[in-house]
Design brief:
single chain, 12 helices, alpha/beta
Length: 522
């Protein structure tokens, strides 16, 4: 029997603060100065937004204080509870002082999970009548080939807490595992349009024009699990091969999903990192009072669809708890040889590791700006593999508009595109080899060697694509999910480009081969 999930996980998030400024782009792109330093609200750098995002949003508050968290970010010594298990949290006399802490814990759980909902692996024969006997109403259930089980979504109707119901179901035939239905909330941090040079500085930083002389991501399929993508945007012409709405909604496109897809595959006025790649547009984030959000159950639907429909790469520009159900899905994806890329998170330097980025099967990406400085809100830690531009990025927005936005979401998207270039160049590369090539060819930033801010450094698309066509990459140091404040005692440093004999940058006089798209203006 699968063990029941712990309830001491940090809040769930994805990497967009929905405050994106959108503009109509006329016959020429409006000028944007890539040298302007990002205007980041200092109050956001140390905490992630919860159920919505923006300058006045609620901050990430774990179910137990940071002092009670272990190196994986899980609660230790401070159980997440809701009183006596009846949901009312009442006790008398000497236990009154404990009620406050327990009620606060329950409030934190409510913020980071959907109130009165659980997700559970169930036997196929479980009836609605059986569920009702335990105070549950089935909202949905389906077989997930990815994890080899049937997962059900239930609402608690008898007033009991999620924790109490989970304990009760642990002894009930038909229920194999139970956990909260965690929230995943998109986060980005946007800036206003400014005057100046409209060039996409990220393209020059990543050396994309040179890399695109060698590969464009042709015939590589990338699943984007995100909010709705504007599939009719001119930047995506011919790129969207399938769409799946894991929410079953009728919502229109959203700025975050459209921006993430643009960083990967834009190929009209702008240029993404893999302009010829194919996109599986998976909507898993829907409208909520303070922004787009998703849940454990819906994210698993997205992973299941991606794995079943030929995804070679999965982009996950969201972050959240060490969710047992999602961890199980990611482990299953990894066995299929699919490359997974995730945003490190926008919760700042004091945040514990966030997931799925901190999962060892996932390439975790932090964000840099035009001056190669770390994005102030970017998460740090031993799990960071690599960095890429993510501050004041010029990207598509719904309704044929464009936006200036920031966040580790978009850094991850660029890296997903780079992975597509590598797989076009060398389809035999395995996920760990893709990671190794990206890390070994990165341009070192920060302290020499791998560090907790930039990982191996800022990605170099041209060096990576050039290296991918030769021999398989050797092993690299294993990243960890320890917080930035902890140091692995025997961490092996990853070699940087200074130790590699890599091709020089292509000269400006070189022209693309026939049929290749022209690189974006630099």
């Amino acid at each position: 029997m699968v063990p029941f999930a712990p309830f001491g996980n940090p809040a769930a998030h994805a990497q967009i603060i929905v405050r994106s400024v959108t503009v109509n782009v006329p016959s020429r792109i409006p000028s944007i100065n890539p040298t302007v330093a990002p205007r980041i609200n200092p109050n956001l750098a140390g905490g992630a937004a919860l159920a919505g995002v923006g300058a006045n949003s609620a901050r990430l508050r774990p179910a137990c204080s940071y002092a009670y968290r272990d190196s994986g970010g899980d609660c230790s010594g401070a159980a997440v509870s809701s009183g006596d298990g009846s949901g009312n949290g009442r006790k008398s006399g000497k236990n009154a002082s404990n009620d406050t802490g327990r009620n606060l814990a329950q409030a934190a759980l409510t913020l980071r999970a959907i109130p009165n909902e659980i997700v559970a692996e169930i036997d196929d024969g479980l009836s609605d009548a059986q569920a009702r006997r335990h105070g549950l109403t089935r909202l949905d259930s389906q077989s997930f080939p990815l994890v080899g089980g049937t997962i059900g979504l239930f609402r608690i109707t008898n007033g009991k807490s999620v924790e109490a119901v989970s304990r009760e179901l642990g002894a009930v035939t038909g229920f194999r595992s139970v956990q909260p239905n965690f929230r995943y909330v998109l986060q980005d941090q946007s800036t206003e349009l400014t005057e100046g040079d409209p060039a996409q500085y990220a393209n020059a930083k990543l050396r994309l024009p040179q890399a695109h002389r060698l590969a464009h991501g042709t015939n590589v399929t990338i699943a984007v699990i995100d909010s709705g993508i504007d599939v009719r945007h001119p930047e995506f012409a011919g790129a969207i091969v399938a769409s799946f709405d894991a929410l079953g909604s009728k919502e229109g496109p959203h700025v975050h999903g459209t921006g993430v897809a643009g960083a990967i595959v834009a190929h009209a006025r702008l240029m993404g990192s893999a302009p010829a790649a194919r996109i599986l547009a998976i909507r898993a984030f829907g409208a909520a009072p303070k922004g787009a959000e998703s849940t454990s159950y819906v994210i698993l639907k997205g992973l299941d669809y991606a794995a079943a429909h030929g995804a070679q790469i999965i982009n996950m520009s969201f972050a959240g708890p060490k969710d047992a159900l999602i961890e199980r899905g990611i482990a299953a994806v990894a066995t299929k040889g699919i490359v997974m890329v995730a945003a490190a998170g926008n919760a700042g330097p004091k945040s514990p590791p966030l997931y799925p980025a901190a999962n060892t099967n996932v390439i975790a990406v932090s964000a840099t700006d035009a001056q190669d400085k770390l994005f102030a809100a970017s998460n740090r830690g031993g799990f960071i593999a690599i960095s890429a531009p993510g501050v004041e990025i010029f990207l598509p927005a719904p309704d044929e508009k464009y936006q200036m936005t920031s966040g580790t979401s978009f850094s991850a998207a660029y890296i997903s595109g780079l992975a597509a270039l590598l797989l076009e160049r060398n389809p035999a590369l395995k996920p760990d080899e893709v990671r190794a090539v990206l890390m070994k060819t990165a341009r070192d930033l920060g302290p020499p060697g791998r560090d907790d801010q930039f990982g191996a450094g800022e990605a170099d698309a041209y060096a990576a694509v050039s290296a991918a066509s030769t021999t398989p990459a050797g092993p690299v140091a294993e990243v960890s999910d320890k917080p930035a404040t902890e140091t692995a005692p025997d961490r092996q440093e990853v070699s940087t480009t200074r130790a590699l004999a890599l091709p020089a940058a292509a000269s400006a006089s070189e022209k693309p081969a026939a049929g290749e798209p022209k690189p974006a203006a630099q």
